[in-house]
């Protein structure tokens, strides 16, 4: 019975949020720098990345935004598959259900890595700031900056990452 009450409590805001519709987001381009505490840094440039998100509005100025990203790398016969899951909580200064304006979003997530021989995971915390530009009643562009700290575990040292991104959002009702 406690599990049912907990589940209902957690899903109630999402259920009421869908009355305003859902925002579907896709990454178009990005640039980033990943700096581990040991070793060399990595600069990435992505075009048309496989980053997808869904925004569920809890209030006109706050959303619950789960996101995922898939990356496959192959170099010199070696491959790496990366699957990233995260959640953000954007706070919008313009209380228009995320169609336009400045936002700040605390974020947390986990990255799952598989190199063909072993699988590992690493948790991260961070934040994003950005600006949404409305292009129609049901569409916006998003431009932002994200910082993240990868948490040290048995498989990986901690890291600091910073990235800029550009994306598109469609609002469904």
Give the key terms.
10 strands; elongated; 173 residues; mainly beta; 9% helix
Task: Briefly summarize what is shown.
This protein is mainly β. It has one helix and ten strands.
- Helical run tally: 1
Spans of at least 5 consecutive residues whose pLDDT stays below 50 are 6-10
Please report the total strand number as a whole number: 10
Largest sheet, order of strands side by side?
1-3-4-5-7-8-9-10
Name the helix and strand elements from N-terminus to C-terminus, one letter apiece: HEEEEEEEEEE
The dominant shape is: elongated
- Describe the sheet with the most strands: 8 strands, antiparallel, barrel
Computed over alpha carbons, the radius of gyration is: 17 Å
Strand content: over 45%
Q: What value does the average pLDDT take? A: 86
Derived structural class: mainly beta
Terminal residue distance:
33 Å
Helix content: under 10%
Write the layout of secondary structure elements.
Elements: H1 2-17, E1 22-36, E2 42-47, E3 50-59, E4 62-75, E5 78-88, E6 91-92, E7 101-114, E8 119-136, E9 139-150, E10 159-172
Antiparallel strand pairs: 1-2, 1-3, 1-10, 3-4, 4-5, 5-7, 6-7, 7-8, 8-9, 9-10
